[in-house]
Amino acid sequence: MRSLERYPLEDMASRVGTPFYFYDGDFLRASTARFANAALGPGSAARYAMKANSGHKILEVMRDAGMWIDAVSGNEVLRARRAGFPGGAEPPVILLTSDVFRDNALETVLRERVTPNVGSPGMLGELRAAGYRGPVAVRVNPGFGQGRVESTDTGGPSSKHGIWPDRLGEVRRQAKDAGLSITLLHAHVGTGPALLEFDTNVKRLVEFFRAFLPEFPEASAVSLGGGIPHPYRPGEAAYDPGSLRSLLERASRDLTAAARRPVRVEIEPGRFLVAGGAVLVTRVKDVKETRANERGPGHTFVMVDAGFCDLLRPALYGAYHEIEVLGARAAGPPEPLVVAGPLCESGDVFTRGEQELLEPRSMPRPEPGDLLALHDAGAYGASMSSNYLSIGRAAEVWWEQGRATLVARREALEDVLAPECDVPV
């Protein structure tokens, strides 16, 4: 969704206020369908990792494209059910992947009969004590994994996710004693910034699981997790989902041969499906400068009304989002600018690097009142937003077939205060 000229964003901003998330539903439907047609074939399935964005319109797109769901909380399961995804385990359309059971997660498993994907051995004991006797999945930490930065690694000794391989025999015996059948093995090792690292990691996981599958005679599926890269920076090459089809077909053949029974291969695209389908629209409130001194160089700060309470990724781990100046000044000469938000935190800056340092961005200088758009904000944007400083979450606007619809209103103070109470416990 690189070109924004055709959308009446200024008109939308005047109606719903800024900042707001803007989604192109036509783009999301077309790109998700294209992915499903290109990447999936016999013996494979895709679960949308709804932690990336659990909005009801996003879930509608995924449901219509035939995606299954990977949920991480009881409420995500219930949101998927409200969006029309079926419960039950035959087939296991919704998988609850969790490191521990929290809040209503265990209760939701029991009521909705969705398959739990256990990430710690103790979860099996909790399932047994609760009276659950259905199928389970087991998340394995294969001993390797990576992310775009070290803090996002999802496998290896520094990762909290999954069960270490030398505990799998104990887990298998524990499940058998509890009357639980392990029907799916799962690992998620993520990917780094290089385009084909995902393919390399998938191949490594297939080899890893080939050694373990014969020990799990009831396992009929293996999930290879997610991590398909998205090109956040201009000029970055895009991942071809067509190459994934042959990779998954080969994985299914290899795992089926190792297990001597049909094995379904699953993947979990999240970011890849939704990142490019949305922008965060924010208004410039001021432009100010600091002067160089012995502490460092001076900077020109473009102050906007969006902050890390709206889009956390740059402050959390230095994630890059292309920033576009909208309107007449978009054609002006570029200069190095730092784009920063309104929060009382030095980290409330959208132009940061992976080392958490300011990285001025070359762009035309806007003026107060102009709109900026932060691109590729569809994944881990709205879903990670917060009420920090008692600020209400931003509005969300959906564009489809030439029509704009408000699909999430801006939160008011009453929404922020709604959970507060004074009740004896």
Automatic annotation (TrEMBL):
Positions of pyridoxal 5'-phosphate binding: G227, E268, P269, G270, R271, Y380
Task of the protein: Specifically catalyzes the decarboxylation of meso-diaminopimelate (meso-DAP) to L-lysine.
Active-site residues, record numbering mapped to chain: C344 (proton donor)
Keywords: Amino-acid biosynthesis, Decarboxylase, Lyase, Lysine biosynthesis, Pyridoxal phosphate
Keyword Transcription (UniProt): no
Family in the record: Belongs to the Orn/Lys/Arg decarboxylase class-II family. LysA subfamily.
Residue list for modification N6-(pyridoxal phosphate)lysine: K51
Pathway(s) served: Amino-acid biosynthesis; L-lysine biosynthesis via DAP pathway; L-lysine from DL-2,6-diaminopimelate: step 1/1
Any single biological process term in GO: lysine biosynthetic process via diaminopimelate
EC number: 4.1.1.20
Subunit structure and binding partners: Homodimer.
Gene: lysA
Descriptive protein name: Diaminopimelate decarboxylase
Nucleotidyltransferase recorded as keyword: no
UniProt catalytic activity: meso-2,6-diaminopimelate + H(+) = L-lysine + CO2
Record: residues binding substrate: R271, R313, Y317, E345, Y380
